[in-house]
Amino acid sequence: MCRFFPFAANLVLPPGPPQKPCILYSDGDSLSLTAAQSSADFAELVSDEARDATLVHPLVPQLPPPRASDGARVWPLMAIQATLFPNKGISIVVQFLHMAVDGRSFNHFMKSWASIHRSGGDPTCADPDDLSPCHDRGVIKDPNRLEPILWKDWWSCVGPSPSPSPSPSEALLGVADKMRATFVLRKHHINGLKAQVLSQLKNDDVWSEPIHLSTFVVACAFVWVCVTKSQDEEHERHDQASFESGNDKLCYFCFLADCRDRLEYSIPSTYFGNCLGIYILSKKRNTLLSKSGVSHAARAIGAGVEEVKAGGGLRGAAEWIRNYNVANNGDLVTVAGSPRLKVYDTDFGWGRPTKSHVVHVDMSRAIALAESRNGDGGVEVELALSRVCMEKFAHFLEKGLK
């Protein structure tokens, strides 16, 4: 933890504006580490098959409760739980507040920890590619005076006494009717989806227009459409009721982009913290439910990716929080994780992980993306839906891949 000491720090949440939350580290700060043993079915926990979303929650460590200090509430940032399944395996589950770091910084920590453990606990023998994190927040500049705008919108969004993390009882209550499953889109599936999108675009007479058609774009477009169909009770009567108000409303899609190499100035690639842009797009529900739904979704997501590349990481930043708040009150699908994080390369010395979970997808309406653990160039998609919606989702996904 010496190099990643902010994880042992605390989040200080003031009662309201104009004060700002901050991360406070003091010498001697530490984090909670729990060692446990479980008799649960290890094979079921690492399976891709749909199962009760609550099964994984006993493996999740609980953040210690907040304490009061000078009118503010002080929250620990991280807790870790290692659970042994005798003669089966081990799970390492980390809960942390996303206000502290993004996925890239968190994975930097995990891979560094794994590298040190793999070398027998000697930091001097760790992977030479394991660079030290940059903790200098001063490298982030604000020439456009975005900070006061974002803080004002944040306080307006969260209201008084915000809570960065649900209680254990709230978490279990929120997922009581959910099923969790992982679907693998293999390389040939991705190539087939790309061909399908290009064919649909050609039939729709927009062939000549350029489109950014990466693995990320087609995977997200396909899953977005399948989720929308799984939650639409009238999809079978879509042709007769395409202009009904329910099918005419907007569906939103949100993806995050690492901004470390997309700013107007240079910052270290190992910058430790949050350096993400929030990008939201929308399509009408009846458009996503149409026969060309995947191609429409792919065009929208691809255009969003191209705009980020062309416009820089802070494109539209002044509207980020307000736009997200609007989308979050509607039909929203967000993306967590990224195949670029290479989570299955996190080797503690026991080989590649059998399974990686993003637990919060069962509460956040997110889909989690990771590289295929088989190393075949595919993508893993993890999500949590109600039992009925999960059955529909699996049906539409299987049908769409044929």
Topology of helices and strands:
Blueprint: E1 10-13, E2 22-24, E3 32-37, H1 42-45, E4 51-52, E5 67-69, E6 72-76, E7 78-85, E8 89-96, H2 103-118, H3 147-158, H4 168-174, E9 178-185, H5 187-203, H6 215-230, H7 245-248, E10 250-258, E11 276-284, H8 285-288, H9 293-311, H10 320-328, E12 331-337, H11 361-364, E13 366-371, E14 379-386, H12 387-401
Parallel strand pairs: 3-7, 10-12, 12-13
Antiparallel strand pairs: 1-2, 1-6, 4-9, 5-6, 7-8, 9-14, 10-11, 13-14
Helix pairs in contact: 3-10, 5-6, 5-9, 6-9, 6-12
Structural overview:
This protein is an alpha+beta fold. It has twelve helices and 14 strands. The chain has helices spanning 42-45, 103-118, 147-158, 168-174, 187-203, 215-230, 245-248, 285-288, 293-311, 320-328, 361-364, 387-401, and strands spanning 10-13, 22-24, 32-37, 51-52, 67-69, 72-76, 78-85, 89-96, 178-185, 250-258, 276-284, 331-337, 366-371, 379-386. Strand 12, helix 11 (361-364) and strand 13 (366-371) form a beta-alpha-beta unit. Helix 5 (187-203) crosses helix 6 (215-230).
